[in-house]
């Protein structure tokens, strides 16, 4: 299932980077695939499946509270991810993605400050930063 999830991640990040939107068909297709895996017991080793949905729910709440400043697609992406990764994987992926995105944002802000550019209005897609986080979790933290 790691290959299926990797395809979902790469396609979602590509669309987020190019159009700032994730197509509904992509979320539905991979969501159904992940949900079928949950229902058939393919991921029985994951405990706390409900906790896996927390990052997605959190992002959707942030979207509502900010009037759409944060993308709803990111929240939906993490809800679908919960079907594939379980609680530890989804939360770790979210936190690693925040670290990578935050580091880049800090670099952009510093660059803007040095060059006299207001970087506060710049938009930065979140899902492309999930790719290095996924590879980190896939290869480094598991020792594969």
TrEMBL record:
Prepilin type IV endopeptidase peptidase domain segment(s): 3-104
Annotated transmembrane regions: 22-43, 50-71, 91-114, 126-143
Pfam family membership, one: Peptidase_A24
GO molecular function: aspartic-type endopeptidase activity
InterPro entries in alphabetical order: Prepilin_IV_endopep_pep
Gene Ontology cellular-component terms listed: membrane
Keywords: Membrane, Transmembrane, Transmembrane helix
Protein name: Prepilin peptidase
């Amino acid at each position: 299932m790691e290959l299926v999830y990797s395809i979902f991640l790469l396609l979602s990040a590509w669309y987020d980077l190019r159009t700032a939107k994730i197509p509904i068909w992509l979320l539905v297709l991979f969501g159904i695939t992940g949900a079928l895996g949950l229902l058939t017991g393919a991921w029985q080793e994951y405990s706390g499946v409900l906790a896996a949905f927390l990052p997605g729910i959190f992002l959707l709440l942030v979207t509502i509270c900010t009037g759409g400043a944060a993308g709803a697609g990111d929240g939906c992406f993490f809800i679908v991810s919960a079907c594939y990764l379980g609680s530890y994987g989804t939360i770790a992926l979210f936190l690693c993605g925040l670290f990578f995105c935050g580091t880049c944002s800090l670099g952009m802000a510093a660059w803007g400050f040095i060059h006299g550019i207001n970087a506060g209005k710049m938009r930065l897609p979140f899902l492309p930063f999930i790719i290095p986080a996924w590879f980190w979790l896939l290869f480094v933290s598991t020792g594969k």
